Amino acid sequence: MTSGTHLALTLTLTGGSAADARAVVHTLEPVFGSPDTLPGDDGATVYTATFGSDTSNGGGGDGGGGDGGDKPSAGAKLSTSVTVTLQGSPEAVRQADETLSAAFKVHEEGAASGDQEQERELRLEP
Fold this sequence. Notes:
- This protein has one domain.
- The protein contains 2 helices and 5 strands, in the order E-H-E-E-H-E-E.
- The chain has a 5-stranded antiparallel sheet with strand order 2-1-3-5-4, covered by helices on one side.
- Strand 4 and strand 5 form a beta hairpin.
- Helix 1 crosses helix 2.
- The longest helix is centred in the first third of the chain and has 15 residues.
């Protein structure tokens, strides 16, 4: 619980469509704000979104405790199972994991921790 916590998160999604990638991104928006870029619809096989490169979305007051107040999108749907890789601070990765677990059926595929960054791979099912 440090003041001014920066929740930067990078998300990479494979195995689904651009609509699936957007559904995952929109599920995370209540916690992380709008991403710097939204996954496009260009027939890619890997979709990427980055959250929190800049804390300019005016949300400084919520930084310390979003356990009960942040609700994921209730209508988020996937067309198929997708693999999501979350990369960021341990707190950001944990919050993203919890948010996605509330919206989708999640299987943890693997995790790696570094000095100040964590990576977690999840399998999301519709």
